Amino acid sequence: MDKLKLALIGCGKLNEIVAKALKDGYLPEYELVAVMGKDYDRAKAFAEHHGCMPCADINELMAFKPDFVAEAASVKSIQDYSETVLNGRSNLVVLSIGAFADQEFYERVKNTAARNNRRVYIASGAVGGFDILRTAALMSPITASISAQKAPGSLYHSPLYKDGLLEITKREQVFTGTTKEAIAILPTKVNVAVAIALASAGPENTIMNIDAVPGFEGDEYKIEIQGEEIRTELNIYSRTSKVAAWSVVAVLQNAVSPIVF
């Protein structure tokens, strides 16, 4: 049986994990054929290490006719490349879910996927529980909120940083608003919040609170859903971003598995 062709957008540490998982036998149904990244020299080094071809642009990547393209790059990469990937008859696995906070773009990508009989797989990133969130939203109107804890230092190069934040001695709220507003301010740090919102009440109707916590390491999310039929709370902590890459591996496994979790 021929293996499915997998291409990667992004050649950083997350797709390094995906490529290594393939090499270690977690994805026996796939072969890695190509990779592209913002820095061609880095993509070339990645390709040499993992036995695939480096690409300078999306058209070169799609020339390999991949069955799946997995993205671990940036919101802009999803905005720029999603429709090209889908029109090229490839399925797309997305980590930079924040791009879909734009409802018009989300609908356009969904329609492009349907027109080409392809799928967009939203990887869970650092969270989970999409099944219960979607089920609750189907059963009755719901309200949704997300509380996130972050290390003060992780906000240093963001609009949420202010003088003295690194010296705080107790928890301090640095943002409250909708997930759509959050992703506009923090395009690389709250992708998971948009995924949660898409699976539940929507980016414009899901409230997000972000607290800076001194001495904290990693990311922690508390998701609360309230509906007429169901109420749930999910608490998820991840020490590093590695869980996001492994969620892509899980998506790729599910995409070809006869039993889907």
UniProtKB/TrEMBL annotation:
The chain positions of domain Aspartate dehydrogenase read 168-248
Q: What reaction is this protein's catalytic activity?
A: L-aspartate + NAD(+) + H2O = oxaloacetate + NH4(+) + NADH + H(+); L-aspartate + NADP(+) + H2O = oxaloacetate + NH4(+) + NADPH + H(+)
Q: Which Enzyme Commission number(s) are on file for it? A: 1.4.1.21
Gene Ontology BP terms: NAD+ biosynthetic process
Look at the named UniProt entry and state the broad enzyme category this protein falls under: oxidoreductase
Source organism superkingdom: Bacteria
Arranged from A to Z, the UniProt key words for this protein are: NAD, NADP, Oxidoreductase, Pyridine nucleotide biosynthesis
Binding sites annotated in the UniProt record for NAD(+): A126, N191
Q: Which Gene3D superfamilies match?
A: Dihydrodipicolinate Reductase, domain 2, NAD(P)-binding Rossmann-like Domain
- Pfam families given in the database record: Asp_DH_C, NAD_binding_3
Annotated metabolic or biological route of this protein: Cofactor biosynthesis; NAD(+) biosynthesis; iminoaspartate from L-aspartate (dehydrogenase route): step 1/1
In this chain the Aspartate/homoserine dehydrogenase NAD-binding domain maps to 10-122
Q: Name one GO molecular function term.
A: NADP binding
Q: Per the record's keyword annotation, is NAD included, yes or no?
A: yes
Other noteworthy facts: The iminoaspartate product is unstable in aqueous solution and can decompose to oxaloacetate and ammonia.
What job does this protein perform?
Specifically catalyzes the NAD or NADP-dependent dehydrogenation of L-aspartate to iminoaspartate.
Q: Which family does it belong to?
A: Belongs to the L-aspartate dehydrogenase family.
HAMAP family given in the database record: NadX
UniProt xrefs under PANTHER family: ASPARTATE DEHYDROGENASE DOMAIN-CONTAINING PROTEIN (PTHR31873:SF6), L-ASPARTATE DEHYDROGENASE-RELATED (PTHR31873)
**Name the UniProt record assigns to this protein:** L-aspartate dehydrogenase
